[in-house]
Amino acid sequence: MAVYYVADTAIIPEGTHRIVEVEGRSIGIFHIKGEFYALHNSCPHEGAELCKGPVCGTTLPSDVYEFKYGRDQEIVRCPWHGWEFDIKTGKSLFSDRVRTRKYNLILSEGQIGIVIGSANEE
């Protein structure tokens, strides 16, 4: 397991994200509602730069003719084909079998560290 410190927390304000390179991997770091999350910057569908897609919410279960929007700023949508992924978990919204890799982070003295090679790396 190795920790790579890649950014100061101050350069990723609330509601924004930044893409970094670590050991040949492109990784998006997102700052959502006071927490930081990291996802592999590649859509499992056809390899688009997932973290360059819009960060948004999604529709929630609702009755017929009703539209409920929720989870604002918790979803990233692939810029090529619109596949949606939960930024907190890396799981797709459409299938339990499709996901993008999520990386664990360590915050220390205002620095964001990405953990590579841990047993918990998903």
How are the secondary structure elements laid out?
Blueprint lengths: L1 E7 L8 E6 L2 E8 L2 E6 L14 E6 L7 E10 L6 E3 L15 E2 L1 E4 L2 E6 L6
Antiparallel strand pairs: 1-10, 2-3, 3-4, 4-8, 5-6, 6-7, 9-10
Short description:
With 122 residues, the protein is mainly beta. It has no helices and ten strands.
Describe the structure.
With 122 residues, the chain is mostly beta strands. The chain has one domain: 3-layer Sandwich (Rieske Iron-sulfur Protein), CATH 2.102.10.10. Helix content is 0%, strand content 48%. It contains no helices and 10 strands. The strands form 3 sheets. It has a 4-stranded antiparallel beta sheet, with no helix packed on it. A 3-stranded antiparallel beta sheet has the order 1-10-9, with no helix packed on it. A 3-stranded antiparallel beta sheet has the order 5-6-7, with no helix packed on it.
